[in-house]
Amino acid sequence: MNKTITIAHGNGGAENHELISKIFYRHFHNEILEKSEDAALIEDGRLAFTTDSFTVSPLFFPGGDIGKLAVCGTCNDLAMMGAKPRYLTCSVIIEEGFATSELEKIVRSMQKELEINGAKIVSGDTKVVPRGSVDKLFINTTGIGEIAKPGISAHNLQEGMAIIVSRDVGAHGATIFAAREGIALESTLETDCTSLYPEVKALIDADVEIAAMRDATRGGVAAVLNEWASASEVCIEIEEEKIPVQEQVRGICELLGFEAVSLANEGTFVLAVAEEEASNALDIMKRHHENAEIIGTVTMEHPQKVLLNSSWGTKRFLDLPSGELLPRIC
Amino acid sequence: MNKTITIAHGNGGAENHELISKIFYRHFHNEILEKSEDAALIEDGRLAFTTDSFTVSPLFFPGGDIGKLAVCGTCNDLAMMGAKPRYLTCSVIIEEGFATSELEKIVRSMQKELEINGAKIVSGDTKVVPRGSVDKLFINTTGIGEIAKPGISAHNLQEGMAIIVSRDVGAHGATIFAAREGIALESTLETDCTSLYPEVKALIDADVEIAAMRDATRGGVAAVLNEWASASEVCIEIEEEKIPVQEQVRGICELLGFEAVSLANEGTFVLAVAEEEASNALDIMKRHHENAEIIGTVTMEHPQKVLLNSSWGTKRFLDLPSGELLPRIC
């Protein structure tokens, strides 16, 4: 490993995985941690438990703010494990001089989003640090959810399964980049940040046999697909033109030199289901977002790899994102 | 409330309470949160759940580091509710350029302390932010404990009960201050930072009827006693000369103009038990730290107040700490 930590170590991709496995997993080594995906399963698999710290900059952006993000992020990690979000803790680190009115706005956003999830903040912590020790405000939320649908896992993918995305990809990363750089978009582009539990509940209530489910946060859809391909030792083949991407997001991607599938989302998830379940799942998902789409299938073509098929008939591997992706997008 | 957040809002005393009640409790309002003390009780009171973010500066100090502190802090909050620490999450925010070797040292300290508590890190999060967005490294730990001894609460104090401190007070605050200011102490002063679960377990195993128990972190013993007096609507009378204080801590207090009872501790707790339980409890506590001492009793002299009796026969109120106490001590 590098002698110092770099921005790339927080990218949700290759370097991030290296840091986690070589430092944290190595020392904290235990069975629950090693099996944990979006959340750890505790209490005989009855509860899911997950944590996330939020450092997004700017704090307020089109379609959301750090408060909404902090509740969505943690509740979505629980929902992705098939769990109903129940109890959250909220720990804030505030820079001296921060406006009380902005803090209150953030807390109000949190409460609004908690209500959508039917979850509660039950414990908290507040630290104030001198000017310059933190950039404005960071929030940690840690959540406990009740498993409603057990067995969802990155290890479940099998040949023939369909891969569905819940909406167009990359809106959060593109929105934060534009807001931070002061790019005035003549557009309505806003973050996809949203609570996914209601949509997950609809899938569970309709008895969809969910094999794997993951929100495509840091590292985007590319990171999710690569982790699944690797965990299940399968190939995931994606039809590139099926991936829904908004026009404005495509524009920002060209500017940045990134692919939309590697940009972060905060309310977009990927689902793997058996082929015969796919159209039912898609119908339900389209009710929540009309851009939901079946984008590929699981094959044994190149195990542990993600293959992108273009409409020109060319093929290329989509790798786990690496390098300095946008920092502070969540 | 002030229009901006000040260092005083994070002091563990009066202004901190104002911020918590006027912003966080007001919007997050729910029964579990309002009843929560060092930790919230969830799952029909079977589990305790608590969070803490650590921003201490410097990261390494005599007797500990931020990693040890992050595990002790959260596990102690669980132990103080009579809970056995079980599962923790660990979320770190790292400044770009931080030395990997220092990160590893911190993670090792965490693991060592987890083993003392018999607890595990089961889920985590790693964020890297650009230089200047955070001062080196912050850690959040959030923990779940299993209630071994239910009913411990700040509301349980009754006339005649004895108040015991587990050791001399103020060592952590004094150590951090000295380390930060580069005061070379010709002494062995070090933080009291330690995991309290083993001592709590000894009290529970000996069937001590613990009424209230609280680790005296930010705001020190003064904050704990004031919160108890207020919650139980009693007066707590303390014999000032009984409060154990190390000579070096006294020296630093004179320098700072603070009282040792208002300085932060990270492995020192206050216990309230019935008079007839006091000597048994003290015997057990002295086995863990010879400086444990009965420092006062509960009376009805001035309800909701803490009274300090000096050896000269004078009396004064010990108030909830307020103003700009030392920031970044935890």
Helix content of chain A: 25-40%
Task: State the separation between the terminal residues of chain A, measured CA to CA.
Answer: 24 Å
Number of DSSP strand runs of chain A: 14
Silhouette of chain A = globular
Biggest sheet architecture of chain A: 7 strands, mixed
- CATH topology (fold) name of the largest domain in chain A: Phosphoribosyl-aminoimidazole Synthetase, Chain A, domain 2
Number of domains of chain A: 2
Radius of gyration based on Cα positions of chain A = 19 Å
Low-confidence stretches of chain A: none
Under the CATH scheme, the architecture of the largest domain in chain A is Alpha-Beta Complex
What share of the residues of chain A does DSSP label as strand, in percent? 25-35%
Major beta sheet, strand line-up of chain A: 9-11-8-12-10-13-14
Oligomer: homodimer
CATH evolutionary superfamily of the largest domain in chain A: PurM-like C-terminal domain
Chain pair forming the biggest interface: A-B, 75 and 75 residues
CATH level-1 class of the largest domain in chain A: Alpha Beta
The structural class of chain A is alpha+beta
Mean pLDDT of chain A: 96
> Number of DSSP helices of chain A?
9
Order of helices and strands of chain A: HHEEEEHEHEEEHHEHEHEHEEE
